[in-house]
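Title: Comparing notes on inverse folding

I've been comparing how different people in this forum approach sequence design from structure. To keep things fair, I'm posting one structure and asking everyone to reply with a full sequence. Here's the target:
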């Protein structure tokens, strides 16, 4: 049942599980736990429904969701590595969470990313070998909207066609770019070699991009795990417009010796009108799935965190876990634009209201055409060469020798630059970083946005790696396949300045943005470790009754756009919770 307001929720139900946050992970957990008909499951979401939000349905309109009503509209603290800029930090505030507003890349990461999680947690359940089945449980591979022959563009052996969230190969061709990129990969070989499928655990090389799009529309955790057939379950209750502020201990624990207090009460306020908080009780567990920022804030509001920092903002500390909110990791992104010799790039579409209107009619009638595209048909995952002088000064942040340190994403337009003319954009991102940031409270008002410091390019390695990524992008464009095509670099540097390491290092901070992949703030660690927040079964250490299931539990950021990892975490977490209570 779907309720628009907490006041509509029947008061006579005894909820076994209450899940805070109806986002990517929360929707999975709500679906899987409500498969057990004797469990009453309550999912609480601060945002509204995604039903009928056409900008969320149409893949191409992804960027229009940034900064709008379905965004929490956070801003970071001033970022030293970004020349002191504070930047917008988008998170989905809508059913489906960030999966309803993200850019739909479907990337699982390197096998070594999961093996590293297994090794730091001491739980082989997090290894690639074991996590594979959870990726398959989540994925339903479907044909692309343009019906093109996808043979040779992916490896069917590592995909599932029977899971929940729809995944497809590119849905609309980037005519002038797709073939050139494949040709360049053949001509250059080496680190740019063609990789049939970057989702088989070995990412290195150039691959076709897989996206969470099905039948020409976005497939989100809401459209898949909370679709009508599941919402009709009598034991699944989803309440929208409900902000979770805190979790509360059952009986007041002794401050100096809390002895694992039990938290089974959750405090909420409706976002629809001013009013006093309401309390709800879970008889089995509270599950925090409010995302890296939301779940962290709920714990801090509740007095679970660094006791000194909490006292400083006027919150009574209940359980001292200094790691709460630390270890924030994200992928910095620099979009570099080159002018090209063409009249057929996506720029002409971006600059023509007539073409867009026609595309809208095509999408409405057939769910095909340019609007089914997320704008990126290929990507490359690379390593910085072993003989680079960087390794004399810095450790390798990647999870292993088969995991990438650089990512390049290819788009057939000037994208964000907004420049007139025809372009190619290469998004340069860092899949592994040495910077770590934090989330802390601004005040003791639970509705105040927290202080978010992703510390982008906060470590000198990250700056040098970004420079190396830009040089890789230039090297790729030097292939014969681009010889009569790529004219000059036009953004954010100029053809004259791009080759100066000094200029690039000094000015790139003015342009680098986030890839919107914050993770790690409630990281898993071994049982008994003196750091970390949740145990390998995702229970908050030192508390009874509370688990965290979302991007915040990742101890290290994977070399992946983070939704597929979150889906797999949520599928495994659901199994762990079911096994515990069965
Ligand atoms: C603009 C953008 C583009 C992205 N592009 C990609 C991409 O192309 N591919 C990819 O793999 N990943 C992408 N990501 C990242 C990916 O979407 C996220 O890592 C993933 O969805 C996070 O899942 P989650 O469950 O941890 O959090 P979310 O999906 O964000 O879910 C958290 C939910 O909790 C709710 N919530 C928060 N606080 C509270 C509260 N106090 N009370 C009640 N509810 C609350 C939120 O409204 C939200 O619905 C992108 C993200 C963004 C923002």
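Reply #1:
Here's my take.
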């Amino acid at each position: 049942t779907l309720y628009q307001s907490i006041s509509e929720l029947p008061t006579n139900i005894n909820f076994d599980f209450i899940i805070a946050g109806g986002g990517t992970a929360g929707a999975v957990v709500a679906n899987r736990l409500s498969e057990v008909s004797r469990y009453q499951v309550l999912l609480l979401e601060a945002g509204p429904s995604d039903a009928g939000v056409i900008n969320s349905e149409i893949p191409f309109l992804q960027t229009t969701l940034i900064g709008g009503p379905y965004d929490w509209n956070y801003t970071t603290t001033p970022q030293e590595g970004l020349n002191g800029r504070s930047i917008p930090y988008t998170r989905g505030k809508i059913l489906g969470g960030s999966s309803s507003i993200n850019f739909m890349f479907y990337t699982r990461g390197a096998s070594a990313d999961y093996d590293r999680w297994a090794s730091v947690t001491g739980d082989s359940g997090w290894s690639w070998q074991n996590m594979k089945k959870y990726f398959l449980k989540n994925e339903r591979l479907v044909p692309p909207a343009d019906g093109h022959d996808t043979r040779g563009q992916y490896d069917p052996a590592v995909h599932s066609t029977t899971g929940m969230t729809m995944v497809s190969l590119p849905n609309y061709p980037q005519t002038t770019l797709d073939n050139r990129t494949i040709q360049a990969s053949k001509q250059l070989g080496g680190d740019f070699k063609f990789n049939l499928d970057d989702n088989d655990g070995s990412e290195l090389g150039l691959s076709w991009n897989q996206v969470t799009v099905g039948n020409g529309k976005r497939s989100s955790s809401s459209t898949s795990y909370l679709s009508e057939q599941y919402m009709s379950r009598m034991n699944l209750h989803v309440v929208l417009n409900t902000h979770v502020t805190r979790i509360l201990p059952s009986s007041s624990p002794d401050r100096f010796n809390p002895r694992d207090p039990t938290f089974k009460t959750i405090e909420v306020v409706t976002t629809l009108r001013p009013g006093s908080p309401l309390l709800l009780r879970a008889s089995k567990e509270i599950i925090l799935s409010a995302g890296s920022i939301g779940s962290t804030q709920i714990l801090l509001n509740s007095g679970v965190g660094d006791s000194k920092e909490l006292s400083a903002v006027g919150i009574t500390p209940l359980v001292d876990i200094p790691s709460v909110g630390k270890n924030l990791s994200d992928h910095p992104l620099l979009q570099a634009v080159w002018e090209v010799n063409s009249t057929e790039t996506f720029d002409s579409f971006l600059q023509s209201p007539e073409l867009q209107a026609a595309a809208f009619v095509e999408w409405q009638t057939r769910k095909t055409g340019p609007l089914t595209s997320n704008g990126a048909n290929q990507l490359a995952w690379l390593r910085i060469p072993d003989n680079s002088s960087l390794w004399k000064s810095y450790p390798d942040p990647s999870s292993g020798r088969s995991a990438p340190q650089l990512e390049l994403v290819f788009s057939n337009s000037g994208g964000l630059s907004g420049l007139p003319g025809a372009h190619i954009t290469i998004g340069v991102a860092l899949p592994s970083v040495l910077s770590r940031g934090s989330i802390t409270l601004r005040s003791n008002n639970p509705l105040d946005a927290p202080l978010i410091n992703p510390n982008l390019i906060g470590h000198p390695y990250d700056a040098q790696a970004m420079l190396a990524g830009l040089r890789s992008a230039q090297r790729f464009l030097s292939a014969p396949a681009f010889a009569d095509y790529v004219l000059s670099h036009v953004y954010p540097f100029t053809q004259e300045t791009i080759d100066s390491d000094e200029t690039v290092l000094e000015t790139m901070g003015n342009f680098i943005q986030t890839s919107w992949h914050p993770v790690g703030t409630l990281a898993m660690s071994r049982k008994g470790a003196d750091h970390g927040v949740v145990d390998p079964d995702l229970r908050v250490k030192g508390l009874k009754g509370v688990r965290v299931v979302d991007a915040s539990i990742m101890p290290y950021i994977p070399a992946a756009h983070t939704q597929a990892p979150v889906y797999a975490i949520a599928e495994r977490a659901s199994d762990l919770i079911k096994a515990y209570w069965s």
